[in-house]
Every structure is written in structure tokens, then in C-alpha cells.
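Aim 2 progress update. The chain analyzed this quarter is reproduced below.
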Amino acid sequence: MNQKRQPYENDTLQIPFSTTKGLVATAVALCVSKGLLNYSSLCITDNRYHQAEIPGVNGITNARSVARFYASLVEDLDNRQQKRLLNEDIMKKATISNTPENDIDLVRGYPNAFAMGLQVFDNDLKPFGSEIFDHEGLFINY
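Predicted C-alpha cells:
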């Protein structure tokens, strides 16, 4: 099988697994900021939903767009022409760990902390500072 190969470029489309989780967590935070949802209320309580494996829901994008999306969570872009998506108060709420301290991840065998849909790495990546979040594969220093 002879496939034509092209070099990777900035706008080459990729399938970044787990990106959807960060996008959904941001959408939820936007809803919280508009009073449409409340972080302290349970949204889905049906265990069947939590146990379901739903493949094929990851987004297809390029690295530049994902980086721009996450940058827009913490600052204005394009010389302040594009305002940040979430204000600082909502970002702080969205990145507070809900995981008991030193709770061991049964898959990885070491502590793993999650906030409101985002993974937080305050203790794991100390050289990068505090308030680092997202899901493994992309780390943001907030």
C-alpha cells in the first residue's frame, strides 16, 4: 500500500483524545457563570450513564486551535479583541479539586485530582507552578 505522505503543519488536523472533556467542562463553567447551572447541584445521578462507554465523542481539531481555546480561558486574545471565555471567579471554581487529598487513582496507582471536569496538577507538576489544569496531554498554568 503506497500512501502519499505530507509533512505535519500547524493546521494539520489531528484527533486529540480527551479534549472533549475540557471543552465540556468549559461549557458547563459558562453555564454556571450565567446562572443556568450550579456546581453544587448534581446534574446526572443515573449510574448507567456514568458506567456507559461512549466512543467517538472526541473532537477533531489542530494543535493551534486547541492551544488558542485554552489560552482564551485565562486571558484575552488578539490584543484584547477577543475577551476571555471565563472570568477569574468561575475559573477558580472550575479548577478547585473535588478529589479527596492523596486519593489513589486505581488505574494509575498514584494520586490523581479532578475539579469540575478538569484534571488539576497542583502537586504533580510543581516546577510549572500552581493552578495547572486540564486533562493529561495538555497542561495549562493558570
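The two ends are 46 Å apart (CA to CA). Residues 19-141 form one domain. These observations will guide the mutagenesis experiments scheduled for the next reporting period.
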